[in-house]
Design brief:
This protein is 69% helix and 0% strand. By secondary structure, the protein is an all-alpha fold. The protein has one domain: MetI-like (MetI-like fold), CATH 1.10.3720.10. Helix 4 packs across helix 8, helix 4 packs antiparallel against helix 11 and helix 5 packs across helix 8. The protein starts with a helix and ends in a 6-residue tail after the last helix.
């Protein structure tokens, strides 16, 4: 009994230390967003600003005319990409799990193979295809290439494989067709998996840097991660503005995680109905 208690104490100490190491950079960034550039450049590691100021936030909103547009572009891209992924990945996962059609297993193997391909390899083909469509510097050029994700098709398939067939059979006896069963019975009960998918997809799209950097060349079409480079010059980087913008950039991701947190653990375990 004492050994178990000692093990728990050690475990909590390790977890607490890990939590401090993880949270400390965020706390420093939050503190730096309220400091003038000179205090940050001094290199002193102090979490409480000596010269507290709100000028950094005022500057990025008032003196940087494109900051609001960058924030809007990021929001449009992240919301659209998340919505399309929830729909298409769920439909594809359900079809692979429940509908037997020619090539079902072969298609599933292709999806698994796609998981092994780094995104950097497909970046040039994406650029050439979007250029041929005339979609560079457009929202569709930023959104369409990411409306499905092999990882979450696989995740939803695993969820629906374990989904109780009795519920679908009962819906069929009530006269519901395949689409009605999916949208009225199956999808509402898949909230845990959908919540986990929402968190990962939104954060991935919200933080995406490489694709917007390649697709967008007009500053007005930049997303916020790309736009933040405007505060970095050849000889000086305005870290006070970068930290302030980063804090604003972090808030939506934290809000999404906080809202869907209660479903998060349930979703990643791929369990079905109760």
């Amino acid at each position: 009994m004492k050994r178990d208690r000692g093990s728990m104490v050690i475990l909590y100490i390790v977890l607490l230390a890990y939590a401090v190491i993880t949270v400390l950079p965020f706390v420093w960034a939050l503190s730096a967003s309220f400091k003038p550039l000179a205090e940050i450049a001094a290199g002193e590691v102090n979490l409480v600003p000596q010269d507290f100021t709100l000028d950094n936030y005022q500057t990025i909103f008032v003196q940087e005319p494109l900051f609001g547009r960058w924030l809007l572009n990021s929001a449009i891209a992240a919301i659209c990409v998340t919505g399309f992924n929830l729909l298409f990945n769920s439909m594809a996962g359900y079809a692979l799990a429940r509908i037997q059609f020619p090539g079902n297993q072969f298609l599933f193997l292709i999806i698994l193979a796609a998981l092994m391909i780094p995104g950097q390899i497909t970046l040039l083909p994406k650029f050439l295809i979007l250029k041929s469509f005339g979609w560079l510097n457009t929202y569709q050029g930023l959104i369409v290439p990411t409306v499905i994700n092999a990882t979450f098709i696989f995740m939803m398939r695993q969820f629906f494989v374990n989904f109780p067939k009795e519920l679908e059979e009962a819906a069929e006896m009530d006269g519901l067709g395949r689409f009605e069963t999916f949208f009225r019975v199956v999808l509402p009960l898949a909230k845990p998996a959908l919540a986990a998918q929402t968190i990962f997809v939104f954060m991935g799209s919200w933080n995406e840097f490489l694709l917007p950097l390649v697709v967008m060349s007009d500053p007005e079409m930049f997303t916020l991660p790309v736009g933040l480079n405007a505060f970095k010059g050849q000889y000086i980087s305005y870290w006070n503005y970068i930290m302030a913008a980063s804090m604003i950039f972090t808030l939506p991701a934290l809000a999404i995680y906080a809202f869907f947190n209660r479903y998060f653990i349930q979703g990643i375990t791929f369990t079905g109905g109760k």
